[in-house]
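Box 3.1 A note on notation
Throughout this textbook, protein chains are presented in two layers. The first layer is the amino acid sequence; the second is a token string describing backbone geometry. Keep the layers aligned when reading.
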Amino acid sequence: MSNHFYSAEENIQIVVSLLKAYGIKRIIASPGTTNLTFVASLMADPFFKIYSAPEERSAAYMAVGMAEESGEPVVITCTGATASRNYLPGLTEAFYRKLPLLAITATQPLGSVGQLVPQVIDRSALPKDAAVYSVHIGTIKDRGDRTTAILKANEAFHYLSKNGGGPVHINLETTYDKDFSVKDLPSIPKIGYYRIFDELPEIPNGKVGIYVGSHSKMSAGLNSAIDRFCDRYGAVVFCDHTSNYKGKYRFLYPLALSQDNWLPAIGSLTVVIYIGEVSGSYSHPGGKQLWRVSEDGKIRSVFGLPKAVFEMREEDFFNRYADKGCEGRSNFIEECRETYQGLLKDIPDDIPFSNIWVARELAPKIPDNSVIHFGILNSLRSWNFFEIPASVDSYCNVGGFGIDGPISTVIGGALANPEKIHYLIVGDLAFFYDLNALGNRHLPANLRIILINNGKGTEFRNYNHPAHAFGEEADLYMAAGGHYGAKSANLVKSYAEALGIEYLTADNKTNFHHQEDILLNPEKRSYPLLFEIFTDSELENEALHTIRNLRVDGSSVLKNKVRNILGKNGVETIKKVFGK
């Protein structure tokens, strides 16, 4: 088989392609069947310098010496069974000397582990001082598997030098495919990795967006650095109410980018720079390139494969680029603001009484210098459509993204800062989940809760949720309808008043307006306040559909129909077939 080429196993191709992209060419191979597809693929490429070592313990120590002398990463590869165990002494040596050894151990599918299959052992846990990073790269069955494999392989290669470097382990799955007919490796993107003192890549020409996920309150220095960057590159900061950027380039994007059948031009960018953590919004701009800036230096792929990762403080990143940019690159921020204001005008006056209607009424009136917390998911989404005063800080428990703990969280914040009013907007399921917190004897007087009680998890009854197809049956076990008194007019009222909490209520727009001045009064109070607003799930759904369909574009409607028929990858499939 002297004229063989690369293995048909795509995960093997990805690893081999990235080895070349990272310039890693030194290989020490030990004999075996499970690593045959990988080794044969290396043999087919003259780029690699391969050495043979029949005993794995010796192979690892050979790599120690080779890495130390050459200053370059060295790959060691072996079969399954106990062969990999014999790497441990050499890997331990490399760990304490921070030498870049890349141990690629071949394995059968993970389902074989523990099933009495010959030559299969469990490598899911390594000694802490044997590798700085360990990852399993499985067989590829679909595009999601492929993306995961590319990310994991890139991260593995990064760790060879990250934080001083050290040995890295890849557990590479094989199906023993005998097809070695692949003549050309796929072009696999190498994810750039930059630290503060590295030479940084140029910002590409075009629309630049900074996307801010959930973020702690920004320092004046970071706000200033972002503003300087935006001045130089004409960039816009895409925010929701968990982002906490309050500078002059802030753009509250969810209203524009949540439209079902219309994608504004502002949603298509040349580069998206992602800072912060998990976003509370499910919509986001698209970009030809995704850059991730974080001190943790980890690859994150919520928008797809990142082009580059910058392991540095956000403030340092923006200042470095601002120092070399040119002012006045575009008026992108004005385009974004015009789009947002135009959509606000499109919202009908008669939008139904709902969380969204309450948000539209209250958002601009929240007292200055207050703090507002949102429950997930409906409350945060509803308020993300409308801007709040710049002096108001806003938060949501989107880290773990669960409904538990919103009352306790806002109580903690209110106790820590008694000089500010702390609001909480929360749905009934999340409210009752954390109800016991209201009985805490430290309950602060600067707490004001807005409870949207629709009697269920209305999220599951929304038109765009999979459970919507079940209609009223969804209330039984999906939307958890009918619990907690089934919208009882007395349950929350009695409980709150028994605890010394002032109680207000409304079930229509008129009643709401009669009460809102009390809720919004900026004066200090001697006791907390709870405003229970009863809404109807069907009207919540109607309001959401209305606000997500303010504008319609024919091509977007067609794309959505294709997605519904062909699935998530429908549009991409059509493009491949017709070449456009």
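The longest strand covers residues 268-275. Confidence is low (pLDDT under 50) at residues 576-580.
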